[in-house]
Amino acid sequence: MSDSDSVLQDLHMFFNQWHEYGDIYAEYAKKVGISSSTLDVLLVLNEDPAECTQKILVNETFLPKQTINSIVTSLLHQGLVALTESQTDRRSKNISLTKSGKVYANKIVQPILAAEHQTMADLPAAKRQKMLATLTHYLQTFKQNIRQI
After folding, report:
1. H helices of the chain, where?
2. Average pLDDT value over all residues in the chain
3. Sign of the CA dihedral with 115 first, then 119, 125, and 126 last
4. pTM of the model
5. What is the spatial distance between Cα 36 and Cα 59, in angstroms, rounded to a whole number?
6. CA 131 from chain center: how many Å?
7. Nearest residue to 27 (alpha-carbon basis) of 117, 102, 112
8. Spatial distance between the Cα atoms of 102 and 70, rounded to a whole number of angstroms
9. How confident is the model over 18-48, as pLDDT tens digits?
């Protein structure tokens, strides 16, 4: 096998694992009765950001504006989020969890965050550090290569 074939094989395996990671989140979302997109939004809102607009949700989740708007509208109708005027941009509305929204989001988000934490804790420190250093290097190099295109 040539070096090029080996690199392609490794890249394919990396993509498969990356997609599997996303599939785990999607499977969990389905298990708790929500869409994976709604789970993404709840993960951001559960962090209780001081300022969270639809634009911020788009940037944090990589979801389309229309999807974010639909999710926020649905959560608003369920009484799980409130909209208030943004302090930094009067044209935008801040999105925050209501009291019942915090209870709901916590019930959904905490189990998957706890599973993530336990999974990372189960890795020996040296493996965690190696994994993170390798991924950091990969992402920095990928960013540089993309910028050269």
Report:
1. 3-31, 36-46, 54-61, 65-77, 99-122, 125-147
2. 95
3. negative
4. 0.89
5. 16
6. 19
7. 112
8. 19
9. 999 999 999 999 999 999 999 999 999 999 8
CA-based nearest residue to 44, from 33, 53, 31:
53
Residue with tokens 């040539």: 2
What is the tens place of the pLDDT at every residue in 37-82? 999 999 999 998 888 999 999 999 999 999 999 999 999 999 999 9
What whole-number distance in Å separates Cα of residue 56 and Cα of residue 105? 18
Task: Return the ∠ at Cα 100 (arms to 51 and 96), rounded to 5°.
Answer: 10
Task: Write out the two tokens for 76.
Answer: 């608003």
Q: What would you measure as the largest C-alpha separation in the chain, in angstroms? A: 60
